[in-house]
């Protein structure tokens, strides 16, 4: 007993007594401390770096003397000379216990390290990748005990790494024999560790010790763009990101036009399948080139997408998704091999598709759920992913509901007279002075407001070309707050509003946001048609959310999370003025950015998250808006801005919405003009 | 209790009491009686036909009255009118229990029926195919409970057939939705039932009830020919058999020349892989055409082959098999998908390769072991598969040993002066009159002996073209018995033997078996070179067997099984005279025909046999002849006919081998000439 020493690991606090001479790596393994190693303690890989601490540790009840670890040895010195080693670091497989000691395992030496996410409310990602590297020494063949080289490699993995029942594809068998001999029976293998239904599988093999990493792709396959993040499966780091237009756009801008294309054209679905796979392969080539890596090192990929994209990507005719009852061919998560999808990454690479929630609520919504985790929220959170369809999740740790609502493309700038995609030159922020009714705005590409000095110069190259989705939301909300737009969605005339910016436009009125005609540039107006388009979109979005609130029997939510690129740029106050989202404390309305893409990245880096989201999706209650009688009622009420019946007490405590009405049929128009009434708070 | 009736099933004797009104199929299932059904008792498939027996059954203690079953019903009548039904048969799902009854389940209604093998010592094959058909009714999609069509199909399989965790490939998903709707949510699916490492998998789907079957291939991939049996996976019946030359022959006649080709030519292994797969695809197309079936209905395939063929088929360079230590890339059984091997059967068809026993003892030898089951034998059996290499198994239920011995192609007629493949015109049987030294023979294509009336006419079309493997064995053995050939392998001169058929041929002598020169046809002689070639081959074969006997510490075997096409035609007595095989009671020397092919068929029809042979192969002790010192000693002794040291007591009790010696250097030649001595029996 006197030869045993106490070893305390931080940050876990795990501790145990070990005989003098025990390597730190061995001690860590026996205690279940997460200390990495690829070479299995042979002093080759240096992944097991640790930092011993010396002195008094009252907290642990230990005093660590200077000679608590064995002296610096030749293997460590060689490694340091060749590769460098941070001062104070030791190799855990070389340093042995000599006395009581406190050992810190730095994050980079942990297999299951945390990848930090920036947002306060977002959970960090715990690394648990599908595929890891293992260095093994394989027994040589013996005529007296004939067994295949593969069987001896499998035995080595089992004996040296406790990985049982490893399988392999033919491509590994085809290169195994020369690689084993080139490495003198020492090889590094990348092993996909498998899951409930798949055994572990050898993905790659290198002669000797391979001092590199393997990669995975997190892919957000959108109707418009395909975005991919290339991640290091060792560190979790995003090493390159890139996006391309979805080549299916030539078959139809939106989902339903693509479904129609498949219905109207024999083989149309196959054309679109080929197109999206080609686009994806171009993207993967591009991203690998950018990261300067061999595409064959990409051994895992996670895809998120809506149901139509999901089916077309898999080569399934989306016909049934175009009509009630919107039956998915398959709703479960899918685990495939890259070669089955003609993807040009590692041929045996695994491809994981998150489960679909329902016929209109796809794997992208599941990915949002994984990223934003409403099912783990203490408070009631509404998560909205705004795109051509809005996917809506509402719930907390007790229950989560989901639905989809057909918002149409207005939020993306389509169907808007001066609308455009969010690109340089587009008006993205708007303010209207409630007294003068004069606007000022910001344009993508410039940080200056249009009334600030230097603005003209700052937009000289881009010009002012149109208004994007977030811009139109702000414009409408500002018009509403300035008394230029009434609750029903009518723009007032110049007489009614007192500004010549309100101009006659056929039978309705428009508001001139910017007149560039003097310089031969566009006149950018907000027309009553624009208001109608946004009204339809926001009513669809709100009534979907409201329907879920009905189902949960609540009339307010604690938080709102806006996901999607659009959500990232939207102003919470303006959205609420329009009644896009339910009434909520402004600080509780946050943006999650591309939450679907983040969900894909989580599922890529942490395989536990896959079964987790599969279980979550099974638990989510799906609501089909199309067959819910109250949806229509909510929709009609939500056409008003903010709403015909739902009170918005928090909003009303923050802003005064003029009680104007510009209905030309009634006498209220002039009466209401310019009149402002302070609503009761409450 | 009074409403329960006793149901006794034959042939199993399983019995139980059931409430009146219970369908026979239900009773059978509850008792675990093997009664087939594809439609699950819906009166569609008629697979559950049974035969009730009436009257007194003292053995079972039952008296069955005429009304023991419910009356013939409309479903049964409709089936009988449409498809016919054997008199006395009922549909097990329609007929219900009304009183005590004895029910016979005919073989064709059993899933696990026995497929009878003709040979007395061979075990029948119990049907347990990988893939079976199931008719299911699938729940229709419901917007309120969204789930994929595939998930509902999987649920139906679980609820209606207790098949859990079914998976599928993309190609099924791609056709699922229209098929489900075409069949009005009733479909028949072919399910591969999986194994330890593979979950069950849907292979095929048909709308409504599919009244057909699915098929499997048992393929014997030989160096010279590829032979395939197409089997009905329902009945086990061989519906077509066919063979083609192995196209690899153009790269080298024998295995080692193909290994050399791969070594000498960059990409040579890939050329040979492509060639053999192309040949196989041509064969599969041919066999499917012959059987008039769609190749996509071939959902399973089992392959047996030697290690070099195994590696080349899988696309693995056989380089290592050409040199010690003869390391296999993999020795375990392989389970692959047809698409991975570019095979043109069902794309998701499973391909099973039996395990290899050692670097020189392949999956073909494993298949022979499966067919001949030495590991289940009570007596000690020697199984010899004679080809270019002889694979040799020796053992009984306690232990089995295996080795390979390089016999070369002499047994196949190669290296023989007048040798040819076994084809019409080849001499296959020979007798030599010990007194006159005159021969008579039979030729392939005729049943007459050459001295019988009508022989000339019967061979008019073929002529007498050469001598095949079994012919040369008989010729040599007859020459040995007639005193024309001595134990050392020398043919005597005309003077020594007293016949002018022994002619001078350079420095040695030849025996003229047939002189067709008068008609411009060949002169067929047995030369001393022919004797040497057969001596080498038979010495290799015998010394391999002898080595295994040493290892088991025995000097005799109870039985000898000759496998392979050559083994099917060989005469046991003649083989023993030459000392090809150990001394053994003649009736205990039997032919197993193409045992490797049979082993493949067993593994195809009974998936249990796969794990069984995998375990057997693990238990087999492998002996590498090349490194065994005693092999050379045995080889030298076995060069004599029958053997320089091993006594052949049983053989000697049957035949008198003249104690001649034609060594021209000694004085024994004339002395021994014509002298016959009766050896002691013993």
Largest sheet of chain A: 6 strands, mixed
CATH fold node name of the largest domain in chain A? Nucleotidyltransferase, domain 5
Strand order of the largest sheet of chain A: 16-15-14-17-19-18
CATH class of the largest domain in chain A: Alpha Beta
Domain 2Fe-2S ferredoxin-type (chains A, B): 5-109
InterPro entries (chains A, B): 2Fe-2S_ferredoxin-like_sf, 2Fe-2S_ferredoxin-type, ATPase_NBD, Beta-grasp_dom_sf, Corrinoid_activation_enz, Raco-like_middle, Raco-like_middle_sf, RACo_C
Pfam families (chains A, B): RACo_C_ter, RACo_linker, Raco_middle
Region (Disordered) (chains A, B): 662-682
Structure, explained:
The structure is a homodimer of 682-residue chains. The first copy, chain A, has 682 residues and is an alpha/beta fold. Chain A has five domains: 4-109, Beta-grasp domain (Ubiquitin-like (UB roll)); 115-207, Ubiquitin-like (UB roll) (Roll), CATH 3.10.20.880; 215-353, Nucleotidyltransferase, domain 5 (2-Layer Sandwich); 371-409 and 533-638, Nucleotidyltransferase, domain 5 (2-Layer Sandwich); 418-526, no CATH class. Chain A contains 19 helices and 31 strands. Chain A has a six-stranded mixed sheet, with helices on both faces. A six-stranded mixed sheet of chain A has the order 30-29-20-21-22-31, with helices on both faces. Chains A and B meet through helix 3 and helix 4 of A and helix 3 and helix 4 of B.
């Amino acid at each position: 007993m006197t030869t045993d020493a106490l070893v305390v690991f931080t940050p876990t606090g795990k501790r145990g007594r070990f005989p003098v001479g025990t390597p730190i790596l061995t001690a860590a393994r026996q205690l279940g401390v997460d200390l990495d190693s690829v070479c299995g303690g042979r002093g080759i890989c240096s992944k097991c770096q640790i930092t011993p601490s010396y002195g008094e540790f009252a907290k642990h009840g230990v005093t660590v003397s200077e000679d608590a670890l064995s002296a610096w040895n030749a293997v460590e010195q060689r490694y340091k000379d060749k590769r460098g080693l941070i001062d104070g670091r030791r190799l855990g497989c070389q340093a042995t216990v000599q006395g009581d000691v406190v050992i810190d395992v730095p994050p980079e030496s942990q297999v299951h390290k945390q990848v930090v996410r920036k947002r306060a409310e977002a959970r960090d990602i715990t690394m648990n990748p599908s595929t890891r590297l293992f260095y093994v020494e394989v027994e040589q063949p013996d005529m007296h005990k004939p067994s295949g080289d593969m069987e001896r490699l499998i035995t080595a993995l089992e004996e040296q790494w406790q990985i049982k029942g490893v399988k392999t594809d033919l491509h590994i068998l085809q290169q195994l024999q020369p690689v084993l001999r080139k490495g003198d029976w020492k090889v590094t293998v990348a092993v996909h560790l498998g899951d409930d239904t798949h055994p572990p599988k050898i993905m790659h093999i290198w002669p000797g010790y391979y001092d590199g990493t393997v990669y995975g792709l997190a892919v957000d396959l959108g109707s418009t763009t395909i975005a991919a993040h290339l991640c290091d499966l060792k560190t979790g780091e995003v090493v390159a990101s890139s996006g391309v237009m979805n080549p299916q756009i030539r078959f139809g801008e939106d989902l339903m036009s693509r479904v129609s294309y498949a219905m109207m054209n024999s083989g149309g679905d196959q054309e679109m399948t080929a197109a999206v796979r080609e686009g994806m392969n171009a993207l993967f080539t591009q991203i690998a080139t950018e990261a300067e890596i061999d595409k064959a090192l990409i051994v895992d990929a996670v895809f998120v997408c809506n149901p139509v994209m999901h089916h077309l990507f898999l080569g399934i005719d989306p016909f049934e998704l175009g009509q009630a009852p919107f039956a998915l061919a398959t709703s479960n998560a899918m685990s495939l091999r890259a070669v089955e999808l003609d993807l040009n990454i590692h041929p045996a690479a695994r491809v994981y598709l998150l489960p679909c929630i329902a016929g209109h609520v796809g794997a992208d919504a599941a990915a949002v759920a994984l990223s934003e985790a409403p099912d783990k929220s203490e408070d009631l959170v509404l998560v909205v992913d705004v795109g051509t369809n809005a996917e809506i999740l509402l719930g907390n740790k007790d229950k989560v509901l989901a639905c989809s609502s057909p918002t149409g493309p207005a939020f993306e700038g389509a169907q808007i007279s001066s609308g455009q995609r969010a690109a340089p030159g587009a008006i993205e922020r708007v303010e209207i002075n409630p007294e003068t009714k004069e606007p000022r705005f910001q344009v993508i590409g410039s940080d200056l407001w249009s009334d600030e000095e230097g603005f003209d110069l700052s937009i000289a190259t881009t010009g002012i070309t149109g208004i994007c989705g977030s811009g139109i939301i702000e414009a409408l909300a500002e018009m509403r707050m300035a008394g230029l737009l009434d609750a029903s969605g009518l723009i007032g005339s110049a007489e009614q509003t007192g500004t010549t910016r309100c101009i006659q436009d056929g039978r309705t009125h428009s508001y001139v946001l910017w007149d560039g005609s003097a310089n031969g540039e566009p006149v950018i107006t907000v027309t009553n048609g624009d208001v109608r388009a946004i009204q339809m979109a926001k009513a669809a979005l709100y009534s979907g959310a409201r329907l879920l609130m009905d189902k949960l029997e609540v009339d307010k939510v604690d938080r709102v999370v806006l996901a999607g690129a659009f959500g990232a740029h939207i102003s919470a106050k303006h959205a609420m003025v329009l009644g896009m989202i339910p009434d909520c404390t402004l600080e509780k309305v946050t943006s999650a950015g591309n939450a679907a893409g983040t969900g894909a990245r989580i599922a890529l880096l942490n395989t536990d998250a896959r079964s987790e989201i599969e279980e979550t999706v099974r638990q989510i209650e799906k609501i089909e808006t199309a067959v819910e009688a109250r949806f229509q009622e909510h929709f009609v009420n939500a056409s008003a801005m903010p709403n015909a019946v739902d009170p918005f007490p928090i909003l009303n405590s923050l802003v005064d919405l003029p009680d104007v009405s510009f209905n030309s049929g009634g006498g209220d128009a002039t009466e209401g003009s310019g009149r402002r009434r302070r609503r009761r708070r409450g």
